[in-house]
């Protein structure tokens, strides 16, 4: 009887150890483990404490130069501003090879839109070349726009 009791206690012990091992695997995989060599920079801490600043409503003027009269680029600007970023504002009709974009929205989305415009500095579509000449932030948004509008000649 002692041999079967020892066998039973070994089986229970093995099952308990296997259960603890599985629990450790599940616990580690379900939580974010930061390796000790990973450092959190001061900029990351500033960004996390500055979330109110990222949600404030700002206005921005972007001056573009290049093939801004093309319908493809202008429709891309409208789609990016309205459908993807939920911004309000306008794009002026092309004057020779310059146009101005005025956008209003949360700082985070406006800055993302500016980065999108700058990304298209080289080539848009098949042959349109656009360059961002300047970016300036306004003191206060006007609040005049309820959507994004494209001006035409």
From TrEMBL:
InterPro entries: Acylphosphatase-like_dom (IPR001792), Acylphosphatase-like_dom_sf (IPR036046). Pfam families: Acylphosphatase. Belongs to the acylphosphatase family. Residues 59-152 form the Acylphosphatase-like domain. The lineage of its organism: Eukaryota, Sar, Stramenopiles, Ochrophyta, Bacillariophyta. Residues 1-30 form the signal peptide. Keywords: Signal. The keyword RNA-binding does not apply. This is Acylphosphatase-like domain-containing protein.
């Amino acid at each position: 009887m002692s041999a079967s009791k020892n066998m039973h206690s070994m089986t229970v012990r093995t099952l308990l150890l296997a259960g603890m091992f599985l629990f450790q695997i599940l616990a580690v995989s379900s939580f974010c483990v930061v390796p000790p060599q990973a450092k959190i920079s001061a900029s990351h801490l500033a960004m996390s404490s500055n979330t109110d600043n990222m949600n404030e409503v700002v206005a921005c003027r972007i001056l573009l130069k290049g093939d801004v009269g093309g319908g493809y680029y202008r429709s891309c600007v409208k789609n990016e501003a309205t459908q993807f970023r939920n911004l309000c504002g306008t794009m002026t009709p092309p004057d020779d090879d310059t146009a101005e974009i005025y956008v209003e929205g949360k700082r985070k989305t406006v800055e993302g839109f500016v980065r999108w415009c700058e990304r298209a500095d080289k080539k848009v579509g098949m042959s349109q070349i656009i360059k961002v000449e300047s970016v300036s932030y306004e003191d206060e948004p006007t609040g005049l726009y309820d959507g994004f509008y494209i001006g035409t000649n």
